[in-house]
């Protein structure tokens, strides 16, 4: 059974086509700069080579059509006929409180995702455009929505509420929702299989550190707290997002600089984090290189970045009454040994001991703590797309 996974962002669409019987990736790529000059599709050929196809992509329907054309291209396509695709799974960013699991998309689901556009203004409208485009181009094919927020719906009220007038929670749904749920769900389950321990009784801290980053406290297989909030801005310092900041600083800057709410949102989401501090790049590889050259600002930025993650690990160990496993995933978590070592540097008091040799691993499942370490520290590469494809297949098989 072939399942297509789409991750539609405001100006991009990433895709992966799976053969679910073998879990093989038949095709993958993404369109960038939708609605902007210079849009293009970049795909990875089966031999690993990258190919760039330039084309004007003014909006998402054209984008999805372009992906379909690429998938059936006689030269580098992965299928002969689009009807080989039996289902499409979508990453949907915000499901509010309505969805604690993935669902088959129908009119009621679309209406509910539309209702969440206010809460996820950058992502939900784009996710809907992707769903509509598939409805238009492949009307017979069932579609499934997999929500970034779903896994976090098990958080207790005292963890998800903000200490503001309660009426804002009732009126507008202002609360912590959390994101990257598909990743936290996958890695927290996978690590138990990998270590041969039951989910029941386990206390796991999952650190998803990529361009966007979030941490979750997972007890007995269920999320009890996570660092992202109403939007994916809260928590860790990220590539371009500030993470936690005093609300007082926000209103102060707005007044001083005469910024509108939208301008302030852009500042915090796109111009802050590593980019705001380091100024040269938001990319952790470039930051790592600058640290190696001894650049002072780079060293400060890195210290801030690691310190925030360490603090969250301490907080979540306290929240769960201890921790058995600390897990790293995401582009940085999977690849950057310096980040993992930097984060764990002061965690010896919790019983964390990293083995520097084992920590050299990149992009592979591995234990990186010593045999004596009380807490197991593990790298598990995430696979959000495979998770979305698997949910999609399961929902169709149980229909
Ligand atoms: N091989 C690598 N070595 C070190 N860092 C990497 C590597 N690959 C990716 N990264 C870092 O991971 C981040 C991107 O992570 P990723 O999970 O792909 O982000 P997102 O999915 O949020 O776009 C970047 O900061 C990048 O520098
Ligand atoms: C929620 C979020 O931050 O997503 P991404 O990592 O894809 O930016
Ligand atoms: Mg990501």
SSE pattern, N- to C-terminal: EEEEEHEEHHEHHHEEEHHHHHEHHEEH
| Form type | globular
Mean pLDDT: 96
Ranges where pLDDT stays below 50 over 5 or more residues in a row are none
* Count of alpha and pi helical runs: 14
Q: How many whole angstroms does the radius of gyration measure? A: 21 Å
Secondary-structure map with pairings?
Blueprint: E1 2-8, E2 13-19, E3 24-32, E4 40-44, E5 50-54, H1 60-71, E6 85-92, E7 103-104, H2 107-115, H3 124-137, E8 143-147, H4 157-160, H5 166-172, H6 181-195, E9 203-209, E10 213-219, E11 222-226, H7 247-257, H8 261-270, H9 273-278, H10 284-292, H11 296-319, E12 325-329, H12 330-335, H13 337-344, E13 366-367, E14 376-379, H14 384-397
Parallel strand pairs: 1-6, 6-8, 9-12, 12-14
Antiparallel strand pairs: 1-2, 2-3, 3-4, 4-5, 7-8, 9-10, 10-11, 13-14
Magnesium ion binds at residues 210, 212.
